[in-house]
Specification:
Layout: E1 4-7, H1 13-24, E2 30-31, H2 42-52, E3 55-60, H3 62-65, H4 68-79, E4 83-87, E5 102-104, H5 121-133, H6 139-148, H7 151-160, H8 167-178, H9 210-213, H10 217-222, H11 224-260, H12 277-284, E6 297-300, H13 312-325, E7 330-335, H14 342-359, E8 366-372, E9 389-394
Parallel strand pairs: 1-2, 1-3, 3-4, 4-5, 7-8
Antiparallel strand pairs: 6-9, 7-9
Helix pairs in contact: 5-6, 6-7, 7-8, 13-14
Length: 403
């Protein structure tokens, strides 16, 4: 059985497709007339689908209100108490549906793409009503957690929705929020939160004690070969540790140097690339390194919100294609305007890092940080809303063999 049947006027198809995609992202099965196969009796198929759907979502507009087909589909949903209504413009739904509340999305003009309508309270109410009709009562709260980007919200949702198909996705969101920002890498973000293991503590190299350095001659005589082998192993470990430390400082210097080439933007070095070193080495093996330089991929955010402008999907595609030729560390940084909430900077960086991971960039090569309001765009007032943005940097691949 289909979860949602969408009834709409053909002229509103771009808006219908945007809503369809948002519902599918929530693991709902959705039907609208794009699914009609050529050569079928379309009126019978529509009748069969609208009667069987768990929820009938009607997109009211001035054109839709004058359509006999849409009125009939809405009537079917209302008679079964399965009607959910959205207004796409400032229209009056037919009088017989006046008792059914229609949620307004027409104030969000960019509903045909990725505007802020998905961050609105109205959208959360629509999804909540659909969720209750199809047996997923926590669906509206899930959208609320997405809008808030709050760890406590995600914990409560996961605990209360054990059987929901979005539970693993919710765990990934929670994992991102739980990691401390200065050392965050999303290498483990794709795994369920319960499966994330704590970091393995490093084992320090024990320093030789005075008693070990001065031994009786008879002891040395009896255990000469053992002592020699132990000394050789100790020197080998010290040499290996020194080489690792030197290579590490070389890589950090290279990253800091690359970033310092653009001082006018005041961007600091990435938070902590150490967690991504092994992954970048593996990714860069036998691949060319054609990096785009120090110019970031920049995406603007909506004023006062954490929603990114619609072009973020195209930017993710471009970053993915560029990373294939420059498979090094990917640094995601979030910024807000002066007076803005610094948590928003971290929230935007988390969302973008997750999308890059879902696109195909290995989680171990990604780090994120929220830079707050201290670094406005060149030539912009610090309080200008255009400073609210996400920047993505592709760093040169790290090669441990280079000194």
């Amino acid at each position: 059985m289909t979860d949602v049947f969408i009834s709409y006027k053909r002229e509103e198809r771009p808006r219908c497709v945007a809503i369809y995609n948002a519902l599918v992202d929530l693991e709902l099965s959705v039907w609208f007339d794009a699914h009609i196969e050529p050569g079928t009796d379309f009126d019978r198929e529509i009748e069969r689908e609208v009667r069987a759907a768990g929820a009938v979502l009607v997109l009211w507009s001035e054109r839709a209100a004058d359509s006999d087909w849409i009125r009939a589909e809405a009537r079917t949903g209302r008679q079964a108490n399965r009607l959910v209504a959205i207004r796409l413009d400032d229209c009056l739904p037919p009088l017989e549906f006046a008792s059914v509340q229609a949620i307004d999305l027409f104030d969000h003009r960019d509903v045909s793409s990725d505007g802020d309508w998905q961050a609105s309270e109205g959208w959360r109410q629509v999804v909540g009503r659909i969720g209750r009709l199809v047996g997923r009562p926590g669906l509206g709260d899930y959208v609320g957690c997405e809008q808030q980007a709050d760890a406590d919200c995600w914990r409560a949702w996961i605990a209360g929705n054990l059987g929901d198909p979005l539970r693993d996705k919710a765990k990934r969101r929670l994992a991102l929020l739980m990691r401390p920002e200065p050392a965050l890498s999303i290498a483990q973000a794709a795994a369920p939160a319960a499966d994330i293991a704590p970091p393995t503590p490093s084992i320090p190299i024990p320093a030789p004690t005075e008693s070990a350095a001065i031994s009786p001659p008879s002891w040395i005589h009896r255990h000469g070969w053992t002592v020699a082998i132990a000394v050789l192993l100790l020197f080998a470990m010290i040499a290996l540790f020194d080489r690792f430390t030197t290579s590490d400082q070389t890589q950090k210097g290279a990253i800091a140097g690359a970033r310092s080439e653009r001082p006018s933007q005041g961007v600091a070095a990435p938070n902590d690339p150490d967690a991504a070193r092994a992954a970048t080495v593996a990714a860069a093996k036998d691949k060319p390194a054609r990096c785009p330089g120090t110019n970031p991929y920049r995406i603007a955010a909506l004023p006062g919100r954490t929603d990114l402008q619609p072009q973020w999907k195209q930017t993710v595609d471009r970053v993915w294609l560029a990373w294939r030729n420059c498979p090094g560390l990917v640094v995601v940084e979030g910024y807000v305007e002066k007076g803005g909430n610094s948590r928003d900077a971290s929230g935007m960086a988390i969302k973008m890092a997750e999308q890059l991971a879902l696109k195909g960039i290995p989680e171990g090569t990604l780090t994120w940080t929220g830079k707050g309001a201290g670094q406005p765009l060149p030539g912009h007032d610090p309080g200008d809303a255009t400073n609210r943005r996400v920047e993505i940097y592709l760093m040169e691949p790290y090669h441990p063999g280079l000194r």
